[in-house]
Design brief:
The chain contains 14 helices and no strands. It is an all-alpha fold. Helix 5 (142-157) packs parallel to helix 7, helix 11 (348-361) packs parallel to helix 14 (412-436) and helix 13 runs antiparallel to helix 14. The longest helix is centred in the first third of the chain and has 37 residues, at 45-81.
Length: 440
């Protein structure tokens, strides 16, 4: 169902639109959480460390897929807000064609370079083989990752956040069952975890593409719709490329941090792997809501209703802060309970590492969530330079401080302290950029 985000009270519009997106990201994260949960419980701590180590590399590929998602979504939102339905369809087809070419290049690069990358981040010998195996299978499924992400971006651009939620709810739940089946019944080890994700992502991708294709047929347009447009591709690229760079550099930064963490041994690696999955659940939720706010902003700018953008910012803050409070309380007070879902008979080092990590980061969710609301508006308005400045400030501070503080008496705890500092400084920058714009 298409939803016009340019009419109605912004509070109600954003809540109705973004809450299914929040539900979607919860299920999206279940893919990765299920992999770590099954690896930690049914295979062992080394397997959990291997999956967590590989996860940081997979985020590079996801960064490119999400960049395609955001670029397509923002431009389709603008055309949809302007009621230019022919260009809506051309933008969708152009995104699919360009993304297929990009995906092929990344699959080749991944097949040739992942082994060297695992060596570069000091992957321990006992975790190397399983990390490489997991990545090889993941790379085979990259087309599913790309086309699924673009399809969900299209639904969001048209104001439909419910359909992606339903796809993810079913496929993510199935992924948990297939993970357990492949690992416990078929005794496939880490390969079973990877193949289960491959299979379930493939099914959800095919269904999502079919649904988008059928949905586009219901949107009225006159004349023959071009399947590809270089001017539209350029507009998409202006949004997508900075988003790809932003997310891929963050992933590279996380890989550098992972390399520092690996120097502390598999106990710290396993604790961090469990903790970072719980943290990413929150941050990815904010990022997805931020993308929803981008759709809201783009539709309203396309419709010439800029004053609604400022109202959307206030509504977005209320939404993310309402969602933040339960996470802050649960992770700070009951983080150990959450970590035990990933760690079966954890070592003291692994458990204490995860608890410390969550207690340092969780109080700052209220700050970083405000940054991501502002970022959503900057992206939706096409202000990518401002968006990139705030993001790269966060990345630089987190990586530099993690490397620096890890060598002090703080040890691994110093690495975790880098997150709140980077978040706080970058939040000030993004909020200042938002406030400097004229939304009248």
């Amino acid at each position: 169902m298409n939803r016009d985000l340019t009419v109605g009270a912004p509070d109600k519009v954003l809540w109705k639109f973004c809450l299914p997106l929040f539900g979607s990201v919860i299920f999206q994260q279940l893919y990765n959480i299920a992999d770590s949960l099954v690896a930690g419980h049914f295979i062992g701590e080394t397997a959990l460390a291997s999956v967590g180590n590989s996860y940081e590399v997979t985020l590079i590929f996801i960064a490119f897929a999400m960049g395609c998602n955001i670029g397509c979504s923002v431009i389709v939102s603008q055309f949809f807000g302007a009621r230019d339905y022919g260009k809506v369809k051309t933008a969708v087809f152009t995104s699919w064609i360009a993304s297929a070419a990009l995906c092929a290049v990344l699959m080749l690069a991944g097949a040739l370079g992942c082994g060297a990358l695992l060596n570069a981040i000091n992957t321990p010998a006992e975790a190397f083989a399983d990390s490489r195996l997991y990545l090889n299978i993941y790379i085979l499924g990259l087309p599913f990752v790309f086309f699924y992400n673009i399809s969900t971006g299209i639904f969001s651009a048209l104001g439909d956040s419910r359909t992606p939620f339903l796809f993810l709810a079913v496929s993510s739940t199935a992924n948990i069952a297939v993970d357990i089946l492949f690992v416990t019944t078929f005794q496939m080890g880490v390969a079973g975890v990877a193949w289960a994700t491959f299979l379930c992502q493939g099914v959800s991708c095919v269904l999502a593409v079919i649904a988008v294709t059928r949905h586009l047929k219901t949107i009225p347009s006159t004349g023959r719709v071009p399947l590809f447009s270089f001017p539209i591709l350029r507009r998409i690229a202006i949004i997508a490329i900075p988003s790809m760079l932003q997310q891929s550099f963050i992933s590279v930064g996380n890989i550098v941090i992972q390399g520092v963490i690996n120097g502390f041994g598999t106990g710290v690696m396993a604790g961090y792997s469990a903790g970072v999955k719980l943290n990413n659940l929150v941050i990815t939720s904010y990022t997805t809501i931020s993308n929803g706010i981008s759709n809201y902003t783009a539709q309203n700018i396309g419709a010439g209703k800029r004053p609604r953008v400022k109202e959307g910012f206030r509504a977005g803050l209320k939404l993310v802060w309402t969602l933040s409070i339960p996470f802050v309380i649960f992770y700070f007070v009951f983080g150990g309970i959450a970590l035990r879902f990933f760690l079966d008979e954890p070592t003291t080092t692994a458990l204490q590492t995860g608890i410390t990590y969550l207690r340092i980061l969780s109080p700052f969710y209220l700050i970083v969530s405000a940054k991501l609301v502002a970022d959503g508006i900057l992206k939706g308005a096409g202000l990518m330079r401002e968006f990139m400045i705030g993001t790269f400030t966060d990345l630089f501070l987190r990586v530099a401080l993690a490397v620096l503080l890890a060598g002090t008496f703080l040890g691994a705890t110093g690495i975790w302290c880098a997150w709140p500092i980077g978040w706080t400084v970058a939040s000030v920058i993004s909020l200042r950029f938002y406030r400097k714009q004229d939304w009248s």
